[in-house]
Structure formats: C-alpha cells, structure tokens
Write a structure and sequence with these properties.
Shape: flat
Subcellular location: Cell membrane
Family: Belongs to the integrin beta chain family.
Radius of gyration: 52 Å
Oligomer: single chain
Protein name: Integrin beta
Strand content: 15-25%
Membrane topology: Single-pass type I membrane protein
Largest sheet: 6 strands, mixed
Structural class: alpha+beta
Pfam family, one: PSI_integrin
C-alpha cells in the first residue's frame, strides 16, 4: 500500500490558514486506472523506467506537481480532465407567439464527462416569455359547509376569465369537485343518506362522491358557466375532506383534464376544511396504498373506496413531475394548516378566502404573480454518487445549494445560474437527469459519464526490451507474457502460477510484503527507508525505527530497537527502556516487594486486580475476610462447621492462628457457628494474596436455652383461657338476642286491642226451659 498526501500551510497575519491543494490520497495502486480512480488530482506517469530499483509501481501515481518534481515529463503524465459538450442550444424566445413551442431555458442538452471528485461548472439561462399559455383547473370542495362559496363562484365565471385574459391571451379553465370517500366513518352509508347527504331542508343536494372531473380545459366562458351552474352541494360526516385524492387524480390524469404540453399549469383549490392523508383510510378498512395512477371512469374517481389517501410526499412528487403549481384558496381558520402543507410542496401558494369567496379572483391573480416572479431551479432524481449545486447569478440570489432561487423576476428578464456537477465515484455506464425551473416544462437534459480509464498510447512492440523481451508496455508498466512475472518480467514461474508465488509474499493473507517491498519470484525484496536502513524479515514486517520513544529518544537511549520492540540494556526496563531496574520504592516496611500482591515495574508497584498502590496493601473492592474466612475460624478454633472434616487443607490460607482469652482493642469480626453461638475473632492479611493470621476468642457467646416446661404450660393455659373467653362471648351474644326478642314480644302485646263480644261457636253449659202453662200467679 502506497500513500501520498500533499498539503500546503499558509501562515497569514496572526493566524494560520490551512489550505488543501491538489491532494492525491491513495490506497492500493496496481495500475493506471487504479490511480485515476483513487482521487481527483491523482495523475499517472507512463514514462519508461520511471520507478527506481526496489520501488513499487504505485510510485507512478501522484499529483502532477510531485511527478514533475521527480522528473516525469509533461507529455508522459496521464490526467483525464472534465469535458462539457453542448449538444442542443436553441436561442431563448422573447414571446409565446411563435410557430414552434417557445424556448425559455438554454442550453437544452449537454454531455458531461467527469473525472471522479473533480467538479464541473456551467451556466444555465432562463427567461419567461411574454404571453406564455396558462391552464387553470378550479378544484372545489362541495361539502355542505361550502354552500355559500358555490353560489359565489357561479356568479364569478366571467370575472375569472377576464382575469386570466389579463395574464395571457392563451388561457384555459377547467373545473372539478370533491368531497370524501363514501364509506364509514367518512360518509353516512345509509342508502338514503348516500343519495342525499345534506340536511333535510336542503332541496338541491347531489349524492355523495369522492372526486368528480366536471369540465376539461376550455377557452369557452359559456361552457364553464354552464357546467359550474349545474353543480350542487353534497356532504359527508367528518371535517377533513378527500382533498389529496382529488389533487392526485387532477395531476396524473393529464389527458382527462386537458393539460397542454407547453403551458403554465395551475390548480386552484378552494376549501374550508383540512384534509385526510395516507393512513387515514385504515379507519374504513382500506389498506391498499395509493399507487399514484389515474383511475377515472365517467368523470368519477373509481378507486376512491378501494385505495388509501396519498401521502403529502406523493402529491408533492406528482405535482413537481407534471409541472403543476397549486394555489390553496382557503378560509381564515385553515390558513395555518395549508401554509404548513405549502412548505412541503414546492412552487405553491396560499390565499385567504372571504366568507363568501367573492375575493377568489383577486386571490388567484396575486398568487399567480408571486409564483411567476419566483424562479426555482432544481433537478429530478440523480444517479448514485452524483452531486449538483446551484449558484444564482441574480440580485439577492443567495449562496450555492441544492436549489437555485431568484425572486422578483419580471416577464422577459434573463436570469442565470451556475450549475456545478460532481461525480464522487466512477459510473458504470452513461446516466442522465433533468434540470429546470419548478412548474415549467422546459428542462435541460444532462448526460453524464465518468473518465476512469487511461489512454496511454503505448508502444506497439509485443516483446519490449524494457520488459526483458517477455512482455509489452502498458502505461509505463510491463504486462508480462504467460509464465513470467515481476516488475521487468524477470521471474519465470515455471509450473507454479503467479497467485501461489504472490501468496508466499503475504503474511496471514495480508498485503504483499506488508507494502514495504516487491514480491519477486515468491520472495520479498524489501525497500530501503529514508534514514538509510532497510526493512527486513520474511515479509518485510520488521524495521528498527518505530519503537517507542522516551524523552524523544528511541528506546530512551537505553536499549536497541529490534523489529519494533525495545531490547533494553541489563540495568534498564520498560517498553521504552525508560526505567532503571530497582525495587526501592516498592518495598514495604516489612521488607516485602509490593506486599507480595504485585510486581515492581519502573520502581513502582503494579498491583494485582483490586489492590491499590503504593504497596498493594488494601483492596477496597474485595470482600472482607470477616465474611470469607468465618467458616475456617469456626473449624480451626472449635472443630465444628462444614469444614471440620478437612480443615487443614480447606483453610490453609490462614497460616497461623491462636486462641486468646481477650482480643486486642478494636471492633472484632464475628460469625455464628452451627450451634448459633457467636465466635469473635481478629484476622490480618500477611504478605501474599491469600495469606492470613487470626486471633480467636476462646469464649463463645451462646444464647440461653428456653424453658420447655414453662412454654408448654403457658401454651396450654393460653389455649384454655382463649376457649373460655370464646364461650363467654357466645353466651353474652345469645343472652342479648333473647332479651331483644322478649322486649319486642312485650311491645307487640301492648299494641293489641281486644273487641268485646260472644263467640258464636261457644255453647253455655246451663239450659233454661220456660213452662208454657205457667202464668206466674
């Protein structure tokens, strides 16, 4: 791999101005074509024997200045340049009253051949001709809320034609209307409501519909007035309308609408509500996306209920593609909504309607003047890796960008733009794209190809002397005959193929000889370095000038560089031999080096993970031995716990311990053993990573055993007491209920009233009989 970068630093005033000039940044260069493709300013020297022995052929690739400085003659330098050929350049027309179509843009066709990365600028002229034809399509919202506006437009037909005649003598007008999709939830689908979607009191109401094309472009005022006069209001359920459906069909159904090829195309949209957009159709179960095609039958949009609304992007794309400029004439409450829409649609205007729409003619005139006085030049879809910028050459035109804009341009005024085209990479075949003002049919066709191949005009001799009579010259390099390889075709490969020989010069399938030598017959011949030394090694991977430096000295001046690694003198160490061998600053007061938990490098401790310098004494992130060594303390001190059977092996990290009556002052560690007793101890880490000394307190702190009899007796007594309390509570509840029932009985008894009288079923036990013959005397 051969790299070359040329930079120029200019010092100016107090600052430093960095300026890049003719830079050739290269990667892998194996031929003249590789060189040309690698950078806009890369050139190739085809001069024979230009490279020096041991130098790669990639050295032929550099900037022109560098090659000339190294002795390459000007005629031997290959540097394809950009070319521009104007293939059609008809003069601009002054007015529209010519036999053929008027020409407003010059040139009309150019052919560009570009060097990748090298821009090419040319001039584009535009002049709007006087009396250019205008096609105006009046697209009206006929939902019920537009009833007053419909009455107004029926009386404004003559004024509309008069205003259009003031703009051009070749004006035509068409008419269309829209409401919304005739499916729920947008429109009431009751059959009676579909026939008459307006209020009951409304006598003149037409059935619900999506979009209807009423009148194709015409110059006849009577036809326009007659068709508009036939229109009736309609209706729907929700506020947003099917506006984008109508605009899309008006844009793509050019034959039905009657758009002329050479005309300014305007759509005047009048509405008092917002619009549905892509995705809203899902509310009605319409999942098929809009395909931007024309579906008109008997003047109606037939796919209204089958296809979703278009997106704003789709509408903007079709309007631009068909050179149509929309004018949104909307009520005051919708102004902000349509201004946001206008920002997404190039070459569009917004005007505010009065309550009865009687100002629509003045609104259209003002919007047309704003549209026609602004010239915006841009392009359609560009090929991959191609950039185009525009610089307006008009007062207040602004900086260069992806669009060129000139404002306040009057009819007949010439405006110009500098167009800069850049191809960043090679293009496989000729491509083309169009440039032109938005809303205008006139376009410039740019045919573009790239110059990525070299034309070297080589000697015709098949076996050239500079190729050892075993090959021919190709752009200064030897193209060897079969069976021979090498810079001068000096290597006979015999039964081997060239790829296997070259593979022997690659380390781990990398670059041949690491880019530091030539592969000659499968052996690397290493290059010399600027300092006089040479690369070495099987694959030229070694050199002795790239070792680490200390105090700006290679290997600190205390060692030798061997294949990029410092070999230090006996008394030095470090990656750059920057340190004297010593452990004086690594020794602890006990005399150990780094506490046995690290190594001393450059007289400083390099601790194992977790421990901190200077002596690797502490490890803040390590788990405390009070926790990790608790089971071993139980095992060593009291021969209990899970390690008791193999205590000496499991707990050998505690090299020394002692049982003591009292512990030294300080907070001791404690652990609970298998008998739930607390064992107190102190543990210290000795030199080494896992080496401890422990002092264990002989006396454990065990909890007192509970009184079993007291617990059992108390439990029985408690159960008995609780049972007695429950019985008392139940007895009290029953007693209270009986008392309540008795009192209720007494109250009912007092309320009873007994009526006096004899029971007719009662028979007295005494019978009295009167003697009929007894007179009482």
């Amino acid at each position: 791999m051969y790299k070359c970068v040329s930079l120029l630093l200019l010092l100016m005033g107090r600052g430093v101005l960095s300026q890049e000039v003719e830079v050739c940044s290269k990667t892998v260069i194996n031929s003249c074509s590789d060189c040309i493709r690698s950078g806009a300013y890369c050139t190739w020297c085809k001069q024979l024997n230009f490279t020096k022995p041991g130098e790669q052929e990639a050295a032929r690739c550099d900037t022109r200045a560098q090659l000339e400085e190294r002795g390459c003659m000007g005629n031997d330098i290959i540097s394809p340049m950009n070319t521009l050929t104007v293939t059609k350049n008809t003069a601009l027309s002054t007015n529209a009253f010519v036999k053929d179509e008027p020409t407003q843009l010059r040139p009309q066709e150019v052919n560009l051949k570009l060097r990748p990365g090298l821009p090419r600028t040319f001039k584009l002229d535009f002049r709007r001709v006087e009396g250019y034809p205008v096609d105006l399509y009046y697209l009206m919202d006929l939902s019920y809320s537009m009833e007053d506006d419909l009455r107004s437009i029926k009386t404004l037909g003559n004024e509309l034609f008069k205003a259009l005649q003031g703009i051009t003598k070749q004006g035509r007008i068409g008419f269309g209307s829209f409401v919304d999709k005739t499916v729920l939830p947008f429109t009431n689908t009751n059959p009676e409501k579909l026939k008459k979607p307006c209020e009951e009191k409304e006598l003149f109401c037409q059935p619900a519909f999506g979009y209807r094309h009423v009148l194709s472009m015409t110059e006849n005022k009577a036809d326009f007035n007659r068709e508009v006069d036939k229109q009736r209001i309609s209706g729907n359920l929700d506020s947003p309308e099917g506006t984008l459906d109508a605009i899309m069909q008006a844009a793509v159904c050019g034959d039905r609408i009657g758009w002329r090829n050479s005309s300014t195309r305007l759509i005047v949209l009048t509405t008092d509500d917002g619009f549905h957009m892509a995705g809203d159709g899902k509310l009605a179960g319409i999942l098929e996306p809009n395909d931007e095609r024309c579906y008109m039958d008997k003047q109606l949009y037939t796919k209204s209920n089958d296809m979703d609304y278009p997106s704003v992007g789709q509408v903007a794309s079709q309007l631009e593609k068909n050179n149509i400029q929309p004018i949104f004439a909307v009520t005051k409450n919708m102004e902000n909504v349509y201004r946001e829409l206008s920002r997404m649609i190039p070459k569009s205007e917004v005007g505010v309607l009065s309550e009865d729409s009687k100002n629509v003619v003045e609104l259209i005139q003002a919007a047309y003047n704003r549209l026609s006085s602004k010239v915006t030049v841009t392009h359609d879809a560009l090929p991959d890796n191609v950039r185009v910028t525009y610089t307006p050459l008009c007062p207040g035109g602004g900086p260069a960008g992806d669009k060129g804009v000139c404002d306040n341009v009057i009819v007949g005024e010439l405006v110009s733009f500098n167009v800069t085209v850049t191809a960043d990479e090679c293009i496989d075949r000729e491509r083309s794209f169009l440039i032109g003002p938005l809303g205008i049919k006139d376009k410039l066709k740019v045919s573009l190809s790239t110059r990525c191949e070299c034309e070297c005009d080589d000697p015709k001799e098949e076996n050239h002397k500079d190729c050892d009579r075993k090959g021919k010259v190709n752009c200064g390099m030897c193209s060897c005959n079969a069976g021979f390889v090498g810079q001068k075709c000096e290597c006979a490969i015999g039964e081997k193929d060239e790829s296997s020989l070259r593979a022997a010069c690659r380390k781990d399938n990398g670059t041949e000889c690491e880019g530091r030598g030539d592969c000659v017959c499968g052996i690397c011949q290493c290059y010399a370095q600027q300092g006089g030394s040479t690369y070495y090694g099987t694959h030229c991977e070694c050199e002795n000038e790239s070792c680490e430096k200390f105090q700006n000295k290679l290997c600190g001046g205390n060692g030798k560089c061997r294949c990029k690694i410092c070999e230090c003198n006996p008394e030095y160490e470090g990656t750059a031999c920057q340190c004297k061998k010593s452990d004086e600053q690594c020794r602890t007061p006990s005399g150990s080096v780094c506490s046995g938990r690290g190594t001393c490098q450059c007289n400083q401790c390099k601790c194992i993970e977790g421990y901190q310098r200077p002596y690797c004494l502490t490890c803040p992130a390590c788990q405390t031995p009070c926790i990790t060594k608790g089971k071993c303390i139980e095992c060593l001190g009291f021969q209990t716990g899970p390690f008791s059977k193999n205590c000496s092996q499991t707990c050998k990290s505690i090299n020394e311990f002692e049982m003591v009556e009292t512990l030294p002052p300080g907070k001791p560690c404690d652990v609970r053993d298998v008998e739930n007793c607390r064992v107190f101890f102190i543990i210290k880490q000795l030199d080494g990573e896992d080496n401890y000394f422990a002092q264990i307190l002989k006396t454990r702190e065990c909890p007192e055993l509970p009184n079993i009899y007291a617990i059992i007796g108390g439990s029985i007594a408690g159960v008995a007491l609780i049972g007695l309390l429950i019985l008392l509570i139940i007895k009290a509840i029953l007693y209270m209920r009986d008392v309540k029932e008795f009192r209720r009985f007494e109250n009912e008894q007092k309320k009873g009233k007994w009526m006096p009288g004899d029971n007719p079923l009662f028979m007295n036990a005494t019978t009295t009989v009167a003697n009929p013959t007894f007179t009482g005397e």
